[in-house]
Specification:
Elements lengths: L33 E2 L16 E4 L2 E4 L8 H14 L4 E2 L17
Parallel strand pairs: 1-4
Antiparallel strand pairs: 2-3
């Protein structure tokens, strides 16, 4: 088996969140798939500040895979994507640090 996609074009994990932020600019249904940013079971607030540092050669980041967790993805983001007819690839990740709880869909 495999994943059927309308086109071979997908967004890179971590660059598009779950697509909602780009909904005014990109027709997510026209993409082959929306690849979510990494999502962990219970969510994770990410690393403490500073998260970004400028260097002579560019920038370094240490965001720490901040994400709202699987429950938020299931309750908020996946229904939003399904309502727009998007194909979705979920990128699971794991964290070992303290977790966050998010229940508000934005």
């Amino acid at each position: 088996g495999g994943l059927e996609m309308k086109t071979p074009v997908t967004v890179a994990s971590g660059t598009f969140a779950a697509g909602r932020e780009y909904g005014d600019f990109v027709d997510v249904a026209a993409l082959g798939a929306v690849t979510t940013k990494g999502v962990s079971l219970n969510g994770w607030a990410g690393n403490a500040s500073p998260r970004i540092a400028e260097t002579p050669s560019g920038m370094l980041n240490s965001i720490g895979l901040q994400n709202p967790g699987v429950a938020h993805l299931k309750e908020c983001d996946l229904p939003w994507l399904a309502g727009r007819g998007a194909t979705v690839i979920v990128r699971p990740t794991r964290t070992c640090q303290a977790t966050v709880s998010t229940s508000t869909c934005r």
